[in-house]
Design brief:
disordered N terminus; three-stranded antiparallel sheet; mainly alpha; 9 helices; Arc Repressor Mutant, subunit A; 3 domains
Length: 239
């Protein structure tokens, strides 16, 4: 690409320059009044701004902070300090606190749903899979030094029933989890692990409700032994 510029010392020399090459050659000599000197801003090409951070990593940090503190207790300055980005980048990339919270919530739902499916798929026996899953959740909750509980449960208590939008989101998540439990319970009946005739939709709702209660209680009771005993009693309903 070539650009032709008038010499900045106004000595009357015309220069032709290949942009980016660093090469220039003198074309002709003449006298140029300073008032005729023009260099349009459009002749400058600026490099596009590139983000100096990993969006997925920043979103993970935001999820952890919101999970721990909740929406209302987390300020923009808290986010700036925790995420390591400035306010302009936060708004430009994530759209502000509200949008960032929504993205963090959705990330938690995606990641946790995949984790639940992976855990339940490790065992051929459904009873064994459910027991391993709930015991794992009880132990993890008891060992969590921040006592965060469940992000979805925390969001439920913070926004519902005052926000219809969040009530609908929470309902969708509840139905998805209950459907997942129902699928495994149906397989358990087929495999002879659960007696036929039980109300499987009610059992699926029960498992979801128990999970939520376990997460809430673990925020105030970090006794791993006690929580694990409660799990064993809760699952006896499948007998």
């Amino acid at each position: 690409m070539e650009r032709t510029f008038r010499n900045s010392n106004f000595e009357g020399a015309y220069f032709k320059c290949e942009v980016g090459s660093g090469k220039s050659e003198k074309v002709s000599d003449f006298r140029l009044p300073i008032s005729d000197f023009r260099l349009p801003i459009s002749d400058f090409q600026t490099m596009p701004r590139t983000k100096q951070f990993n969006e997925e990593e920043v979103l993970r940090k935001a999820m952890e902070l919101f999970w721990k503190q909740g929406y209302h207790a987390t300020s923009i300055q808290n986010l700036v300090d925790q995420l390591g980005i400035n306010r302009a980048s936060l708004y430009d990339t994530f759209g502000g606190k509200d949008a960032l919270f929504e993205k963090a919530f959705e990330k938690y739902v995606r990641d946790y749903s995949a984790q639940v499916i992976a855990q339940l798929s490790r065992h051929e026996s459904v009873r064994r899979a459910l027991e391993a899953f709930f015991l794992s959740e009880a132990r993890a909750a008891a060992r969590d030094k921040d006592h965060k509980g469940c992000f979805v449960v925390n969001t439920t208590t913070e926004f519902v029933p005052n926000s219809e939008e969040w009530a609908q989101r929470i309902t969708r998540q509840r139905k998805a989890m209950e459907h997942l439990f129902l699928q495994y319970l149906q397989r358990a009946v087929e495999q002879g692990e659960i007696p036929p005739g039980k109300d499987l939709p009610a059992l699926a709702a029960y498992l979801f409700t128990f999970y939520n209660g376990l997460k809430v209680v673990s925020k105030a009771n970090d006794s791993e032994e006690e929580l694990c005993r409660v799990v064993q009693v809760a699952l006896s309903v499948l007998d």
